[in-house]
Amino acid sequence: MSAILTVDRLTKTYAGGFTALDAVSLEIREGEILALLGPNGAGKTTLISAICGIVQPTSGRVTVGGHDTVTAYRSARALIGLVPQEINLEPFEKVINTVRFSRGLFGKPRDDAFLERILRQLSLWDKRDQPIRSLSGGMKRRVLIAKALSHEPRVLFLDEPTAGVDVELRRDMWEVVRQLKEDGVTIILTTHYLEEAEAMADRIGVITRGRILLVEDKDALMRRMGRKEMRIELKEPVTRVPQALEPFGLTLEGEGRRLVYAYDRQANRTGIVRLLTALQEAGLTVADVETKQSSLEEIFVGLVKEEVTP
């Protein structure tokens, strides 16, 4: 799959000496969903702003669809749609006029049928003649998405698109994201709801302290860094892990009724058979067994903690 967006050693250092982006390099493939994750202040929004031309980088280069964002800014920017974190809309303007104006800003001819399709897709069509100020916070975020899509971009940035949105609206918005991907739109999103990133993204990028830690296929990342746990429920509680079971590194939970065993599922030998035999020999009766795979959130927290630990 070819790259539609290329970031080459992008750096942003402010006048006070703070480096928000430190030689960031990144390739984003056409038609993919990339989740860009990082703690607050990691550089996510600065990176998006630099790509979109809102922030002037100190050095480095960005191309979108082959267009340099500095020497061919208009051509590059026309390919990008941006949904920012902040809701900054004209409160007294109608929804339809707000979206129509955004399309016109990019020099696109009037196309009411296209805008109707977008508004219907976002459940905004019945609110098209309402002023922005009458909408809920979640519906205003949908207007931001409609504005970003109005000029038919090939790349869409979603910067915390579901912040402050209730569960039902969040689910609807992710359905819209899936449809956009099917339409061929490349999507880069930042989100604090990591379970959503895990469900939606094709690849995961992690940024902290202005540097990219990794960019990797989501499934490969989960396999490589994911921890597998076997949770063993006992029929009778124990006060401590029997000495014979200590080599397995078990953790005792649930008031002594649960033993937790962590293992590498990629290893040739997981040790599960030996553990189950040792449990029987220790006189422990198993009531139930379940396995649990590390979530993307657990992997992310581990990566960031490892990066900041001196």
TrEMBL record:
InterPro entries the record matches: AAA+_ATPase (IPR003593), ABC_transporter-like_ATP-bd (IPR003439), ABC_transporter-like_CS (IPR017871), ABC_transporter_ATP-binding (IPR050763), P-loop_NTPase (IPR027417)
Domain ABC transporter: residue ranges: 5-234
Record's keyword annotation contains Nucleotide-binding: yes
One Pfam assignment: ABC_tran
Molecular-function GO terms, alphabetical: ATP binding; ATP hydrolysis activity
Keyword line: ATP-binding, Nucleotide-binding, Transport
Descriptive protein name: ABC transporter ATP-binding protein
UniProt organism field: Roseicyclus persicicus
